[in-house]
Every structure is written in C-alpha cells, then in structure tokens.
Amino acid sequence: MLSGLAKTSRSLSFRLTLWHAGLLVAAAVAALGTVYVELRNLTIARERETIDLRLGFLEAVYSRGGLDSVSDLVRRAEAGRDAAFFIQVTDAANRTLFSSNSPQWQPYTDGKLDHAPMPAPGRDAWTSLEGEDGTLRLAARRLGDDNVLRVGRATVESRRVLNAYEGIALTSLSILFPISLASGWFLSRRALSPLSTLTLAVQEIVATGRFSARVPTRGTGDEIDELVIYFNVMLERIEKLMTGLAESLDFAAHDLRTPLTRLRNSAEAALRDPLDQTALADALVACVEESERVLVTVRRLIELAAAEGGVARFERTPVDFLRLATEVMDLYREIAESKDVEVSVEASGSLVAQVDLDAFRRVISNVLDNAIKYTRLGTPVSIRLRRVDDEVVLDVADCGEGIAAEDLPHVWDRLYRARSSSAQPGSGLGLSIVRAVVEAHGGSVGARSEPGKGSVFTIRVPTG
Ligand code: ADP
To answer: In this structure, which residue's CA is closest to atom 26 in ligand 1?
Structure first.
C-alpha cells in the first residue's frame, strides 16, 4: 500500500497533475486578485467622487445661507432616514460649530476629529477614520470665511461588495482546485497512455524473449507516435538479427553435420586398416578437403552475421573499382580458362569509391565466381563498370541458364539456392554476404535474368 503510494507520487502522471493544478490555481489567483484590486480602486474612486460632489453642494449652500442653512439641511436629512453623510463645520482652530449628531458616526468620530488634518485653502484634506464595522472616508475643505467643512461617508456598502467578491473568489478557487486536479490527472493519463502501452510491450518482450511484439501507433503523428514508430523499427531490426542468428545456427547444425560425418567416416575407414598406406593417404586427403569446406562455410557464416548485424568494422579507403575488378578477374583467370570462359572488363568514368577494400574484393569475387560457375562452357563473362551520378555501378553478366522468375527475388536470401543450380557446389551464402556488405556501405544490389540466355548482377555503391 505504502510502496504503491510512493510509486504513484514518483510517476510522471502524478507530477504533471500537480503542475497542471498548481498552474491553473495560480493563474486563477492572479486573475481574481487583479479583479479584486481593480474593484477596490473603483469603489474608492466612486466614494471620493460622491464625497466631493457633496462637499461642493454644501459649500454652495454655506456661501449662500451660512451655517444655518447647512445645519437646517443636515437636520432635515437626519430626521428622515439614516443620514448618508457625516457633516461637520469647524472654525479655523478646529472648534466644532456644527456637527451631525446621528449616533451611527460615533464609532468613527469619537475623540478622533480633534486630530483630523486641516485643509489648506483650495486643497481638500482627505483622511480615513477606522470604526468597528469599517472606515469613514473624510474630506475637509477650507471655506471662504476660513471655517472648515468636513464631509464623511462610511465605506460599509463598498466593504459589503468587496466581502461578497472575496467570498465568491474563495468559493471559485475551492471548486477549481479539485476540478484542475481531476482534469490534470485525466489529461496526463491520456497523454501518457501510449507510454504505458510501450512499457507493456517491453515487459512482454522481456518476459517472453519474443521480439515479434509491436506497439500499435495511433496515427496522430505526434512525438509519442514518432517514438513508437522508431521503437517498432528497432524491434524489427532486433527480430531480424535474432532470426538471422537462429538461421545461422540451424544452418551450422544441419549443413556442417554432413561434411563432419564424412570426415569422421573417412578417418574411421582408414583406422580400420592402419597398415594400408594408400588408404591412409586417401583418407587424409579427404579429411583435408572436408575440413576446408567446413572452414569456408564457418568463415562465411561469421562474415555474414558480422555484416548483417552491423558489427563488421569496415575500413573505408578510396578504392579504384577498375583496378579491383581487374585484380579479381586475374585471380579467376585459371578457373575461367578451365571452362573455356573469357572474362572481360569494360569501364567508363571515375570509378573511385570510399569502401572497405577486402570486403569489396570478396563481393566482386562472389559475383564473378557465380558468373563463371553458372555460365555455359565457352561463353563470355563481362564485367562492366560505370559512374552514374554519385554511384559506381558494377554489372557482371554471364551467358548461363539464367534464373527462373520465381527464384530471382530470393537469390539474395541466405541459404537460398535455385533448384536449377543443385548440380553446382555452393552454400547459398555468397549473395547474402554480398548484399549485407553492399548495404552496410549504403549501396544496393539487383539482378535480372533471361532464362536460357543469362543473368546480370548489379551492384551500386555511393562514392562518398
Ligand atoms: P551459391 O553458393 O549457391 O552460389 P549464392 O548465394 O552465391 O550461393 O547464390 C544463390 C543462388 O543464386 C545460387 O544457388 C543460384 O541458384 C543463383 N545464382 C547466383 N548467381 C547466378 C548466376 N550467375 N546464374 C544463375 N544462377 C545464379
């Protein structure tokens, strides 16, 4: 229970929810606070305006009818309902000549008016007197005969409005906080749910060791979708590597068993009659041949796994493909002559590309070896080299039986051997190594064939 709580509090959803709620409440506090300040300023300005108007009115009454007119007016107003204004007239020494006597002003004015500020002529003096329920805003004006007229108004009404506003603001905030928590939780869960799916997929892979699982994309094209797409691409690559590894192991188990059994049979046969020198020599020759075959296959498997898995370290240097092709052609001259096959090289343009020399020597050897192996006796094999844009393109053409249309797309697959070629020795690994090496260099491979007439294998390598 406790560890569950600790986990939740560490979760991204939880933190996003808190941030969301916090920011929303902070924004609301700022907005409500600004409105409160504006409202307060507005009410103060309105109170001052009202007091100012009253001052002006009473000043006019005073100047026309003197103190008596003012006192008459005030008494009459006070006799009616609650007087709206506190009125006081003092002489220049602040001695009271007339004052409102309604008891409602006592909490504000009792003993405080003696120290109230005296106005200069032409400049009203403003002050606030605090009472129990609020404030009395008070303005004093110097009259023409040097006496002072004071008009005051209690802020109870404005206070009530502001109090009501404070209540509304606090209620809004107390409603907003749980709502923002809930909406934050909902939004963060919704935004992060693809990550949970991703986590589930990873958990499944970790638990089962199967890399065939894929995380469904939502097609929104957002950042999480992009992550999911790359994650799936990564899974696909890992799956391909794992399958390749498993196939290589399968192949090693199946295809190495035959030559190794033959090797053991030869040795056992020779041991049955250890005195027969000729049989011993024959058996040793057979053993050497078989072990050579095993070694070649093992080497090719390792080469393929390294190139496909991206672990092969290719040392890229500028390689002149014309020189390289001529060198490989010379290596195969003897084999070609034994089949009465003439190999030729044609070249045009700059043929230098940044590749691994040894790896591409094997690439060209593999393709040329196939062409000589599968071409008919006495027919030519040609290597054509040309430059197309930023690529060096190499074609190896033969005049063999060709490859059936249904076999053609598969000749690059590992261990694939067309049915027509079962008479020829081979492992079905050569072209898959070619493809892996060329693709690891950013190039591409292709093959076209006309059954009965021959095949052309093409390799394209970027120069850079
Ligand atoms: P292999 O060791 O069997 O030659 P590769 O991977 O080099 O293995 O070739 C795969 C298959 O592609 C071959 O078994 C053969 O059926 C076909 N193939 C390759 N090159 C040629 C070619 N020049 N002409 C006809 N078939 C070919």
So the answer is: 403
Which residue has a Cα nearest atom 20 of ligand 1?
A: 370
Lookup result for tokens 């041991």 = 271
pTM above threshold 0.70: no
Give pLDDT tens digits for 10-25: 788 889 999 999 999 9
Q: 450 C-alpha vs ligand 1 centroid, how far in Å?
A: 14
Q: Which residues line ligand 1 (CB under 6 A)?
A: 366, 370-371, 374, 398, 400, 403, 411, 416-418, 421, 426-432, 455
Closest atom of ligand 1 relative to the 421 alpha carbon: 16
Q: Which atom of ligand 1 is nearest to the CA of 429?
A: 6
Candidates 416, 430, 431, 423; CA nearest to 400 is 423
- Tokens at 357, concatenated: 């020399």
In tens, the pLDDT along 355-378 reads 999 899 999 999 999 999 999 999
Whether residue 255 has pLDDT greater than 80: no
Residues in the chain, total: 464
The rounded distance, in Å, linking the Cα atoms of 75 and 80 is 9
Tokens in use for 124? 């009203």
The label of the residue with tokens 């033969």 reads: 398
Q: Calculate how far, in angstroms, residue 370's C-alpha sits from the geometric centre of ligand 1.
A: 6
Ligand 1 center–CA 323 separation, angstroms? 25
Give the per-residue SS3 of the chain. Answer: CHHHHHHHHHCHHHHHHHHHHHHHHHHHHHHHHHHHHHHHHHHHHHHHHHHHHHHHHHHHHHHHHHHHHHHHHHHHHHHCCCCCCEEEEECCCCCEEEECCCHHHHHHHCCCHHHCCCCECCECEEEEEECCCCEEEEEEEECCCCCEEEEEEECHHHHHHHHHHHHHHHHHHHHHHHHHHHHHHHHHHHHHHHHHHHHHHHHHHHHHCCCCCCCCCCCCCCHHHHHHHHHHHHHHHHHHHHHHHHHHHHHHHHHCHHHHHHHHHHHHHHHHCCCCHHHHHHHHHHHHHHHHHHHHHHHHHHHHHHHHHCCCCCCEEEEEHHHHHHHHHHHCHHHHHHCCCCEEEEECCCCEEEEEHHHHHHHHHHHHHHHHHHECCCCCEEEEEEEECCEEEEEEECCECCCCCCCHHHCCCCCCCCHHHCCCCCCCCHHHHHHHHHHHCCCEEEEEEECCCEEEEEEEEECC
The rounded Cα 11 to chain-centroid distance in angstroms is 18
